[in-house]
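The following block was generated as part of the benchmark described in Methods. Ligand: 2'-deoxycytidine-5'-monophosphate.
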Amino acid sequence: MSDSFIIAIDGPAAAGKGTLSRGIAEQYGFHHLDTGLTYRAVAKALIDAGLPLDDETIAEKMAREVELAGLDRDILSRHEIGEAASKIAVMPAVRRALVAAQRRFSERPPGAVLDGRDIGTVVCPAAPVKLYVTASPEVRAKRRYDEIIGKGGAADFDAIFEDVKRRDDRDMNRADSPMKPAVDAHLLDTSEMSIEAAFQAARSIIDAALSRNA
Ligand code: DC
């Protein structure tokens, strides 16, 4: 029995799960791991070392060496790293290595919030709270577009929209641990919901689970 209260948050990119997860971790004083960063860190390490992205043995070796402490979101959030991450995320040996590290992280007391694609289904299937945060592809593409423009960058909405759909397709249709809601996950569709409303909805689900656990 672990002393850690685990909150599993899954869903596609740009649905708001990162902001929500960080807010929840802060609210409850729990540790937080964005598991997407673990896949991104492996991809970046391969790119930096000039190694191929399609060799499972090499990628697995990198995955075993990845350090979960100090994953830098700013550096790892680059678009081409996300693309590379979604390629190595289809490899079962890479997933096994990263899932083992993610499970170790989830056991840190007093609790941990893990966000990703397969937390409720594969990494922490016994988590007492599972949320599946989603939003329509159009809304997610628009959020990404606004974020880039807001930072003073240049963005092409149609290209972002195509990219969101391509990434969803790869994440949902891979053979190993495809992205999908766990049967006992609470669905939060943020298409027409503010982040504050999503946060309040998540809080009432978590508070109810915490009082059942007390
Ligand atoms: O959430 P993100 O964009 O940082 O994720 C990068 C890639 O890693 C994405 O294509 C899906 C993959 N991923 C995964 O397969 N399983 C997870 N638990 C988290 C991310």
